[in-house]
Write a structure and sequence with these properties.
A hairpin with a 5-residue loop joins β3 and β4. α3 packs across α4. The protein is elongated and about 45 Å long. It contains 4 helices and 9 strands. Strands 2, 3, 4, 6, 7, 8 and 9 form a 7-stranded mixed beta sheet that branches. The chain has 188 residues and is an alpha/beta fold.
């Protein structure tokens, strides 16, 4: 099994590298929000997210079983990951809560009731077919009494044979799952 996962990871890296001289960009399409979640705040600002350097890069990285990260300048995210993930989080939270949620900079005149900051320790597609994230979130409130923080550790499966498109779809699902987790555990 170890050999097959390593071969699959190597095959995925070759696929990423074989995209030719022209780079190809992959957009993350947000999956539909099908459930509602109540939160304790009428408005929330999603601050800039903090990503590990490999996840903040334009190149789509894949982690082999031995931990090695491989990427190609020919296979790119369609948007800057930090900006895109902050937007994905704010849009997912807005859809599931029905509240006024926006990413930084806050576009409204009145200040938000809460500010969300997310620091990712890991956000990586693994060659084994798992997109994994872990880290910590912080909910800051001006009154200071309801401030919260928490840890997260989430994964979604994807088909490694689907290449970068499957990785992009998995990231979209993972950020939706993270928004649901933070809304339920950090803002409820």
């Amino acid at each position: 099994m170890r050999y097959s996962q390593r071969a699959l990871g190597f095959g995925l890296v070759l696929f990423l590298a074989a995209c030719g001289d022209n780079s190809t960009s992959f957009a993350v399409t947000a999956p539909p929000v099908t459930e509602k979640q109540r939160i304790a705040f009428a408005s929330v600002e999603v601050r800039d997210v903090s990503l590990p350097s490999y996840a903040a890069a334009d190149e789509i990285a894949v982690q082999a079983e031995d931990g090695t990260l491989t990427s190609s300048s020919d296979v790119l995210w369609a948007d800057a990951p930090e900006r895109a993930i902050a937007l994905e989080l704010s849009q997912n939270l807005a859809r599931m809560t029905g509240r006024r949620v926006a990413s930084e900079p806050w576009p409204f005149q009145a200040y938000p009731d809460a500010r969300l900051e997310v620091r990712f320790a890991e956000l990586v597609a693994k060659a084994s077919g798992e997109f994994h994230t872990s880290g910590q979130y912080f909910v800051a409130v001006t009154d200071g009494r309801r401030e919260r923080s928490g840890l997260f550790d989430l994964s979604v499966a994807y088909n490694p044979e689907g290449g970068p498109g499957a990785i992009a779809a998995a990231r979209g699902q993972l950020i939706l799952d993270l928004a649901r987790y933070i809304a339920r555990d950090g803002m409820g």
